[in-house]
TrEMBL record:
It catalyses: isopentenyl diphosphate = dimethylallyl diphosphate. Its EC number is 5.3.3.2. GO terms for molecular function: isopentenyl-diphosphate delta-isomerase activity; metal ion binding. InterPro entries: IsopentenylPP_isomerase_typ1, NUDIX_hydrolase-like_dom_sf, NUDIX_hydrolase_dom. GO terms for biological process: isopentenyl diphosphate biosynthetic process; steroid biosynthetic process. It comes from Modicella reniformis. Belongs to the IPP isomerase type 1 family. It comes from the Eukaryota. One of its GO terms (cellular component) is cytoplasm. Residues 68-222 form the Nudix hydrolase domain. This is isopentenyl-diphosphate Delta-isomerase. SUPFAM superfamilies: Nudix. PROSITE patterns: NUDIX.
Amino acid sequence: MGQSDVVSPTPAPLTSTVGADVDLSKYDDEQVKLMEEMCIIVDREDKRIGANTKKACHLITNIMDHKLLHRAFSVFLFSADGKKLLLQQRASEKITFPDAWTNTCCSHPLNTPDELVEKDNLGVRTAAQRKLFHELGIQAEDVPLDQFHFLTRIHYLAPSDETWGEHEIDYILFIRPQHKDYIDFKPVPNEVRDVKWVDQDELEALLKEDNSDVIITPWFKLICKNFLFDWWKRMLSEGAVDKVARTEEVEKIYRL
């Protein structure tokens, strides 16, 4: 992708954003603390241009008025045979998209030296490993960095409510560990409300339930609609997760 190594954090956040006065007192204390994390601010071509807090990056005012855009990732963790995908239901305590079903893990690389490394998407993969442990208690040795496979990037915008939303360039990562049929996990209660392994038919049925008693995150719906089932079938037919992505997909940012 022609990306270079980046190892030094941006010394100061962007200052052209608003929202410092938004009251967080009604939210879960742990989730509020996470709003202080520094996300990586990028332009439309995914070039790093600065950093800002998770809070600033997810305020609808900043997204709509300042076009604030940050880097993110979505992990899809499969069973060893590739037939099942692990989904999570986001905890009720989450500030954005609470109680929504989504892919295995979705979060952001941070503005830190190890997660800013762009060569071979190492920073994003490092962040994915970190968050799988933070949200689901999955040990690093069960999800080695070299087993994450990058497929493509999607650029999307989606409101959560009148205050919060997402505006991301989202790196899609597949991982299919071979040493266990199913990876061991222990969900963290104020991160994950529920989990389930689904096959393709079960996922299609779940997606059809959206807008009833089931809530699906917007990025997961976009990925499912545009890519996931073709990738999944390709992975099973090729027999290996590293053969899923096509060159044009890896090199492109899809605007969804």
